[in-house]
Design brief:
mainly alpha
Length: 289
C-alpha cells in the first residue's frame, strides 16, 4: 500500500494543506490592508489566494478532491475572523456564527466520513480528467472546479459579512433566518445519514427511504436553503441602501442555480446510467422536496 492510500496520512496532509492556505490567505489580507480597497475586495483576494494554494496541492497530488472540504471550511473561518476583527458580538452576529458553524461542522463531517485517501477522487473530476484533453482539463480544474466554487461561496457569505459589520441586535426576522439555516443543515444531516445507511446495506440500489422518498436531492435542497437563511438574516437588519440589499440576493440565487443546473443534472445523468429504475423514480419523485 502506498503512503497516499493511508487514510490517516491523507487526513494529516489535508490538514497541513489547509493550514498553509490559511496562512497565505492571512498574509494576502494583511498586505492589502491600508491600500484603500473596500474590505470585501481584501477578503475576496485573500480567499482566492488560499484557493490557489489548495489548487496547487491538488496538482501535486493529481487529485482535485483536495479542494472538496474548502466549501465547508472557508465560511465559518472567514466569518468568525471578521467578527473578531470588528469585535462584533451582538445577538445577530452570534446567531449567524452559530448557524454557519453548525452547517460547516456537519458538512465537513460528511466529507470526512466519505473521504478515503489521497488516491480517491470525486467521480465528476475523474470524468473531466478522462474526457478532456490535458490542457482543457487543467483550465476546467482551475476555473471551474476551484475558482468558481470559491466565488460562489464568497458571494453567499457577503450578506453575513454585512450582518457582522452592522453590529446590530437580532429581531424576529433574524431568528426566522436562523431557524431556516438550522433546519437546512439538519435536513442535510438527516438526508446524508439516511443515504449512507441505505448504501451500506443496498449497494447499487436507489435510495428511496426517509427524505429520499419525497425528493431526489434533499441534501442539495438543504444546501440551497442554508444560504437563503443567511440572506434573510441580512435582510432582517435593513442594512445599507436598497441597491445593496438587492445585490446581496445574487449569492444565494447563483448558488441555487449552480445546484439546479449543474450539480443535479450531472448526478442524475450518472444515476440514469448506473441504476436501473432511476427514470421511474425520477418521474414520480420531485427534484428537491
Amino acid at each position: 500500500m502506498s503512503i497516499k492510500e493511508s487514510r490517516s496520512f491523507s487526513f494529516i496532509v489535508i490538514f497541513i494543506v489547509y493550514a498553509i492556505a490559511f496562512v497565505v490567505g492571512m498574509l494576502v489580507y494583511r498586505s492589502l490592508a491600508g491600500t484603500g480597497w473596500h474590505y470585501l475586495w481584501q477578503l475576496f483576494f485573500s480567499d482566492v489566494a488560499a484557493t490557489v494554494v489548495v489548487w496547487l496541492f491538488g496538482l501535486l497530488f493529481r487529485n482535485v478532491s483536495v479542494y472538496d472540504p474548502y466549501w465547508s471550511v472557508a465560511p465559518p473561518v472567514m466569518l468568525t475572523l471578521w467578527a473578531c476583527q470588528l469585535h462584533s458580538w451582538t445577538s445577530a452576529t452570534l446567531l449567524l456564527l452559530i448557524a454557519v458553524w453548525y452547517w460547516g461542522i456537519r458538512l465537513t463531517g460528511n466529507w470526512a466520513y466519505t473521504f478515503k485517501n489521497l488516491n480517491s477522487e470525486d467521480w465528476r473530476y475523474t470524468k473531466y480528467r478522462t474526457e478532456q484533453k490535458p490542457v482543457v482539463f487543467q483550465l476546467i480544474n482551475f476555473f471551474g472546479l476551484n475558482i468558481m466554487p470559491t466565488i460562489v461561496v464568497f458571494l453567499v457569505m457577503i450578506p453575513g459579512f454585512f450582518v457582522i459589520e452592522a453590529a446590530a441586535q437580532a429581531n424576529m426576522v433574524s431568528w426566522f433566518g436562523f431557524i431556516v439555516c438550522v433546519c437546512a443543515a439538519t435536513l442535510q444531516l438527516v438526508s446524508d445519514t439516511q443515504r449512507h445507511r441505505f448504501a451500506k446495506d443496498h449497494k447499487g440500489q436507489i435510495c428511496q427511504v426517509g427524505l429520499w422518498k419525497h425528493g431526489r436531492h434533499p441534501n442539495y435542497f438543504g444546501e440551497i436553503l442554508m444560504w437563503w437563511g443567511v440572506w434573510l438574516m441580512f435582510l432582517a437588519l435593513s442594512i445599507g441602501p436598497s441597491t445593496l440589499r438587492d445585490l446581496c440576493v445574487i449569492g444565494p440565487l447563483l448558488n441555487a442555480c449552480m445546484f439546479r443546473f449543474i450539480s443535479v443534472p450531472l448526478m442524475e445523468k450518472r444515476q440514469l446510467q448506473n441504476k436501473p429504475g432511476y427514470a421511474e423514480y425520477q418521474k414520480r419523485t420531485g427534484m428537491f422536496l
